[in-house]
């Protein structure tokens, strides 16, 4: 995928990943009266149903933790699952995918 490392590709809230479209549907405010909104009109420090912040996921963040965990605990896992798909917890659309060595 051709994305800039700092572009937002998804959000985390309600203990799952959600695509930008679903996040906008649920959380977008009237951007004109709010100064602290991001590029998708999502206000910083807005809370989900569990009282946690809705957190943007940047293209550069996405698989870093995953790769570290895999290396440390389960390198065999990748032989069986060489492609990992990040999907939206609301609409189940694919947000991004990871392939070993890419
Ligand atoms: Zn979605």
Offer a few descriptive terms:
binds zinc ion; 3-stranded antiparallel sheet; two-stranded antiparallel ribbon; 102 residues; alpha+beta; 24% helix; single chain; 3 helices
Overall description:
- With 102 residues, this protein is of the alpha+beta class.
- It has one domain (8-99).
- Helices cover 24% and strands 24% of the residues.
- The chain contains three helices and five strands; from the N terminus they run ββαβααββ.
- The protein has a three-stranded antiparallel beta sheet.
- The protein is elongated and about 45 Å long.
- The termini are close together.
Number of domains: 1
Largest sheet: 3 strands, antiparallel
* Total DSSP E strands: 5
Instruction: Note the overall shape.
Output: elongated
What ligands does this structure carry? zinc ion
Q: What portion of residues is helical?
A: 10-25%
Strand order of the largest sheet: 2-1-3
How confident overall, as mean pLDDT? 83
Rg over alpha carbons: 15 Å
**Total count of helical runs of at least 4 residues:** 3
Summarize it.
The chain is of the alpha+beta class.
Blueprint (SSEs and pairs):
Blueprint: E1 8-13, E2 16-18, H1 20-27, E3 55-58, H2 64-73, H3 75-80, E4 83-87, E5 94-99
Antiparallel strand pairs: 1-2, 1-3, 4-5
Zinc ion binds at residues 18-19, 21-22, 88, 90-91, 93.
